[in-house]
């Protein structure tokens, strides 16, 4: 079969599959994580994903006993961001990375504040029906941080869902995700091209 006929045959097959309803965009969706033998391999390259925000609940504002006193630099994989900005939902296969950074200096030339210090951990959450068929929202949670926060493990097992999901289910704004604290996600929800920034003069 020559090249022309080969292309024609491939197009015909593709048309038949699509017409028959056997293909959805999720069928070819890229996954940005690997789970082997029940353990999540530590993702790489996530700082080039879509950054959604950095919340911090410092000890100074929580009687010295903040549950999460460090900065959390949060990223979402590019394909899940594309679905979020088009449909306003987290796709099956979403992975969100949380990079933990200590509170460093509290003073700078600009004034007093909470400035980032050293990296002290890495966490991830994944939405997957195949991995978490019986978990609320199909979410699972992982930590690659060593107990002394001096290094990262190569793999991580999921926490028991009850350890994380109860709080997420009770207080998170969208599908177990605290989107209310991430302006990039709030502003981008089902906004299409406008989600990429710079298309609107309104800050509301």
Automatic annotation (TrEMBL):
InterPro entries: Cytochrome_P460, Cytochrome_P460_sp. Gene3D superfamilies: Cytochrome P460. Residues 1-29 form the signal peptide. Residues 43-179 form the Cytochrome P460 domain. Keywords: Signal. This is Cytochrome P460 family protein.
């Amino acid at each position: 079969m020559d090249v022309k006929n080969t292309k024609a045959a491939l197009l015909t097959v593709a048309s038949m599959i699509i017409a028959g309803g056997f293909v959805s965009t999720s069928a070819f969706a890229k996954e940005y994580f690997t789970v082997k033998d029940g353990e999540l391999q530590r993702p790489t390259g996530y700082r080039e994903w879509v950054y959604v925000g950095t919340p911090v609940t410092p000890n100074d504002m929580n009687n010295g006993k903040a549950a999460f006193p460090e900065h959390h630099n949060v990223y979402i994989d590019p394909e899940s961001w594309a679905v979020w900005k088009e449909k306003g939902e987290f796709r099956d296969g979403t992975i969100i990375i949380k990079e933990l950074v200590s509170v460093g200096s509290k003073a700078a030339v600009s004034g007093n504040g909470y400035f980032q210090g050293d990296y002290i951990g890495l966490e991830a959450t994944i939405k997957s029906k195949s991995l978490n068929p019986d978990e609320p929202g199909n979410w699972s949670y992982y930590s690659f941080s060593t107990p002394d926060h001096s290094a990262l493990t190569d793999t991580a097992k999921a926490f028991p869902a009850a350890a994380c999901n109860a709080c997420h289910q009770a207080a998170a704004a969208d599908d177990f995700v605290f989107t209310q604290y991430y302006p990039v996600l709030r502003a981008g929800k089902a906004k299409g091209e406008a989600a990429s920034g710079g298309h609107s003069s309104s800050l509301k």
